[in-house]
Amino acid sequence: MTVHADTAPAGAARSRPADPGVRSLVRARRTTSWTGLWFVLPFTILFAVFLAWPLLAGLWTSFTDRSLAREDASFVGLANWQEMLTDSAVWQSLWVTLLFTAISTPLLVVIALAMALLTNRVTRLGWFLRFSFFAPFLLPVAVVTLIWVWLYQPGFGLVNAMLTTVGLPEVGWLTNENTVLLAVAITTVWWTVGFNFLLYLAALQGIPGYVHEAAALDGASPWQRLTRITLPLLRRTTALIVMLQMVASLKLFDQAYLMTNGSGGPDYAARPIIGYIFDSGFTGLRIGYASAISYLFFAIIIIASVIQFRLFARKGDAA
Amino acid sequence: MSTVTSTARPAPPARAAAAPRRRPRVRITPGSVAVTVSALFLAVVWLLPLLWAVLTSLKPEGETTAVPVHWLPLEPTLEAYRVIIARGDLQQWLINSTIISTVVTLLTLVVCVLAAYAFSKTHFPGRSWLFALFIAGILVPPQVLIVPLFDEMTALGLVDTYWGVALPQVVAPVMVFILKRFFDAIPRDYEEAARLDGAGHLRVLCSVILPMSTPILAAVGIFTFVQAWNNFLWPFIATTDPALMTVPVGLGTVQGGYGIQYAQNMAAAVIGALPLIIVFMLFQRQVVRGVTDAGLK
Questions:
Q1: Labelling B69: which of B41, B99, B110, B184 has CA 20 to 30 A away?
Q2: B230 with B100, same domain?
Q3: Are A9 and B273 within 8 A, CB to CB?
Q4: In Å, how far is A178's CA from the nearest CA of chain B?
Q5: B101 domain residue, yes or no
């Protein structure tokens, strides 16, 4: 997942390699030993117990009819997988996930970019802007949803109050199947855009000032400098942010679950695939079936990562 | 990527030499005014939900649902806060969150630093094979594991315990990777000098490598803490006892269950938001660097 070569520590990373003579002397002493194994042991145990084992156990469980309601389970072959492929709720929740990703990702990239460009140009109030844009990212999800459920209330909620003030009709944000996912997406943008904003701001501050000064001397207008210099120089950062953001959006669950009180919203219009995994496993108690869907989700994440990685690698070459 | 917080961009040498201590004079043009106004407008829009939450929390319950909506409380009161604090849940959740996030952060640092050091500075049988396995682990989203992990935790008797919530969060292969990359960049000369003086690996790690790694340790620590503090899905599944819940889980599942008391909900939200916001205001630089440096990978 790492992409940026320039994130390595500035001081230590740039020092030159050791003198060749010393090096060969040192290499003679560097032999294979078992000491290192003791150092990796604690992490290896935790990795095995809390990552590798559940991953394999989940795969096995997906071939059984295991349930939280009883002890025994029997092997059912591909039955869960077959059921999954014909279960309309799987495809519907998958659609919700993809739709959410399609709505939220562009907003989370474009707004973050706008925030960073503005903040980078403002000389005095930088700390205030950084605080305003980034602070929501530090809020626990339940705080975010408490606030936004309150904002979305019909009648006395702030969002609808503002709509009616300017003469627009009220919207039943969380009670209408057509708006509930949009409402979740807006909340998500408000909550998490600050992280992308920071990445953009860091990239902008890495562009040396003389690039712009040279362009200005050559008579480039501010707009030309933005489109011809700044945005092309930000291409790697944009690719990185799009990549991180898409995978993050595909993992939607927390805020959608809390904003709909765990119901998934009217007609399950805001129940993402993880929501369906949760419902099948912990409400329906069907652990075997939930495991099969988990693997479908896993496959989607891997495919999305691979596609993005390839796209990104190509863009990186061009830049 | 390490210059996030340095607001002062490097000035051209000539100007810097002429007036080293004076801020560069800002020319006020229609363009710069437009930029400032738009930036401030956007910042205010972003702060409005928080401001509205704080204002609501200061209203008496009857005022919160008044139509038309008015911004300032007519009769400001701390009643909502008094009720929330008297109930005691939130303090318990704050304590739980503090304990769990601290344990997760410390364990992650110790365990990942040890592993990263071994991968970076020692040679042992199966090293590259094991490292490849851990890197592959980065690709596994924690959400995939919730069902079998809950099953496993039930078998181990760790459901509804601090360890059950904390331990799975310690497995962060990406942190091993980040730390290893940093350690790789430390020239071998330093560590070899200590080795020639007879220091063991643990000694080299503690007295040579770690003192040179404080920025990355801070980054990994802060990022892990923020993540653990705000983690919802796993703590939500691993706890059913309100006395063991973290802030996000307790606020999300129990708070709403008291019925719709908007002023109290907002008071709880404000208190729940405060710890990290205060940390952020005190250590803005470090938090921003920590989150970006460690979160980038």
A1: B41
A2: yes
A3: no
A4: 23
A5: yes
Domain chopping of chain A, boundaries: 78-314
Instruction: For residues A74 and A293, give the distance between their C-alpha atoms in angstroms, rounded to a whole number.
Output: 18
Residues B219, A116: Cα–Cα separation, whole Å: 22
Please, what's the largest Cα pairwise distance for chain A?
A: 81
pLDDT tens digits, one per residue of A227-268: 888 999 999 889 889 988 999 999 999 999 999 988 888 999
Nearest chain A Cα distance for residue B129, angstroms: 12
Contact (Cβ atoms closer than 8 angstroms) between residue B83 and residue B77? no
Mutate which: B57, B147, B188, vs A, most A CBs within 10 A: B147
**Which tokens sit at A211?**
């690039």
Asked if residue B159 and residue B45 are part of one domain, the reply reads no
Token output for B186: 């430390």
Q: Is the pTM of this model over 0.80?
A: yes
Given a contact cutoff of 8 angstroms between Cβ atoms, the answer to whether B54 and B266 are in contact is yes
Residue A237 to residue B9: CA distance in whole angstroms: 19
pLDDT digits (tens, 9 = 90+) for A1-26: 434 444 444 444 444 444 555 554 45
ipTM metric: 0.84
CA nearest neighbour of A245 among A188, A299, A201, A203: A188
Q: Do A147 and B269 lie within an 8 Å CB cutoff?
A: yes
Which residues have CB under 8 Å from A23's CB, separation 6+? A17, B188
Task: Quote helix, strand, coil % in chain A, to nearest 5.
Answer: 75, 0, 25
Q: Which residues of A touch B188 (CB under 8 A)?
A: 18, 23, 26
Q: Regarding the domain delimited by A78-314, which CATH topology (the fold level of the hierarchy) does it fall under?
A: MetI-like fold (1.10.3720)
Tell me if A18 and B187 make a contact (CB, 8 A cut-off). Answer: yes
